[in-house]
Automatic annotation (TrEMBL):
InterPro entries: Methyltransf_16 (IPR019410), SAM-dependent_MTases_sf (IPR029063). Transmembrane segments: none annotated. One of its GO terms (cellular component) is cytoplasm. It holds the Pfam family Methyltransf_16. It comes from Hypocrea jecorina (strain QM6a). This is Predicted protein. SUPFAM superfamilies: S-adenosyl-L-methionine-dependent methyltransferases. GO terms for molecular function: S-adenosylmethionine-dependent methyltransferase activity. It comes from the Eukaryota.
Amino acid sequence: MEASVQKQVDRFCRQYLQLEQTLNYPEPQYIRRSDVQDAIYQRLFAEGALPGGSPPLRYQLRVLKELISRIEASIEDWDEHGVSDCLMSSLSVLFSTPAPNENDAVQQKYPVVYHLASLPGHEAHIDLFENRALIAAGGTTGLRTWEAALHLGQLLCHGPSIVSGKRVLELGAGTGYLSILCVKYLGATHAIASDGSDDVINNLPENLSLNQLQDSSAISLMKLEWGHALVGSEEKRWNGGRPLDVVLGADITFDPSVIPDLVSTLLDLFSLYPHVEVIIAATQRNLQTFHVFLERCMGEGLRVEDVSFEIPPRDQQEGPFYNDQVAIRICKVSKS
C-alpha cells in the first residue's frame, strides 16, 4: 500500500481506537479499494483484532455503518470494486448483538488507545480503560483523559528531558495518562500517580496492567488530598523522604473551590523540595477560574510563567487527537 494511502488508513484506525466522535475516513478513491478495506477490517473488526476489548457497541455500529455507506458511495464500477464481505459480515454480527440498556452502558468502562505519533517507533501508544459518561463519587471527572493531559503529554514527548531520569509526581492523575507516559516512554526514574478520589485510585491498577506496568517498581499510586499536610504515616516522612524532581498536573484548576487547597499543597511541596519543577496544564474553558488560580498563587508568593507550546491543527494531528479550538495553557509554577 502506498505511503500516502497508508497514512489515511492509520489516521482513521487511530481515531477509531481513541473513540473519537469525528473520524477522517480515507478518501473515496482509496476507500473502495479491497486492500484498504481489508486493512481496516484486520485492524479494527476482525476477531481478536483488539485484545484489550472492543469499543461500545453503538459506537462500533455507527462507525461501521458510515464506513460501508462511504464505500458504497465511492464505487463507480461495481464490476471493478465492491464492499468487503468481511466488513458486511461484521456489520451483520453487530446488528444481531443485543445492546446493553442505557443504564448499564453508562456504568461500563471501555478501552481507549492513544497513539503517540511524536515518539519514534510506529507502535508507541497508551491503553486505558475509561468511562466518558460517568461522574465518580465526589463529583470527580477522573475516569477519562482530558485534553490538557494530552497536550501536556505532547509537550513532554517533544521535550523528554523534562522528566527523563527524574522522579515525578502527578497531581489529579485521573486515568494515569501522564504517569504512564513518563515511565513507559520518557525514561522517568519513578512516577507517583496521585489523586484524591478512591474511585480514581481504584481504577488505576487496571490501566497499569494494560500498559504492562502492574509489576513495575517505577510507578506507584498514592491517595493525596489537597490541603492536607504532607506528613508521613507508616513512613516517618511524606513519600518516605524520597527525592522529587517534577510535579505535573493537567486540568486540575477547573473548580475554583479546590484552588486554595491545591495551592496549599504546592506550597507544601516547595517546602519539602525547594527545587522541584511544577508544570500545570489547563484547558481555558473558563478564564475566570484560571485567574482565581493565578491570584491565589500570587498572593502566596508563587510565580506562574507561561510555557509556549501550540496545539497542532486538528487536520495535522496523527495521535493523540484533541480539540484545537479550545485554548490550553501550560504554565511553570515556582517559588518566588
